[in-house]
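anyone seen this seq b4? input:
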Amino acid sequence: MAQGNGLAVWAEGIRAELAKRLPRQRKRQRDKLAVLVATMLHVRSANLVELAAGLPRASDRWDMGYQWISRFLANDRVCGDEIMAPFAREILARLAETGEPIPLILDQTKASDRHQILMLSVRWGERALSLAWRVEETEGAPGFPHGSSPWAKGPRGRLWLRHAEGAARGGRRRAARRSARDPAR
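predicted toks r here
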């Protein structure tokens, strides 16, 4: 049961970090999220079946773990934007301190015949760290339905992710000061 013990240690560290950054989040949500994130780090996959099989649960039935994950992710009280916001703010603030341009990655992928995923990430070393994402139900060709885009036009016609707008406020001010000094940027 060494796997369970290792996951328990990871989950406890993640739980403590979540409690520090999200003090108003419900304890049960925080506990479940910590176990799910620790399992994801252990199995190195976001595939729900693989996550379900890797959960440190008493039952050996992966389908029970799959049901547990599905219920947790479908919970309207679990808001990905609220969970990611303090982490996104820290990442963007650290990158803005360097004075270099912030390397953003925008990726759109087809999750199923009816669902598209749009994800905004930032490059951190050799990794891409997710800042925000949106899943939209679509019909036919890829793309988001007119009027439901998670993007908004910002100052000077720049495109901003609505959720990240508040998170990146300090970084945008620094970027605006930099671009005023160096218009070529």
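The chain has seven helices and five strands. Residues 43 and 170 are 35 Å apart (CA to CA). kinda curious what u guys think
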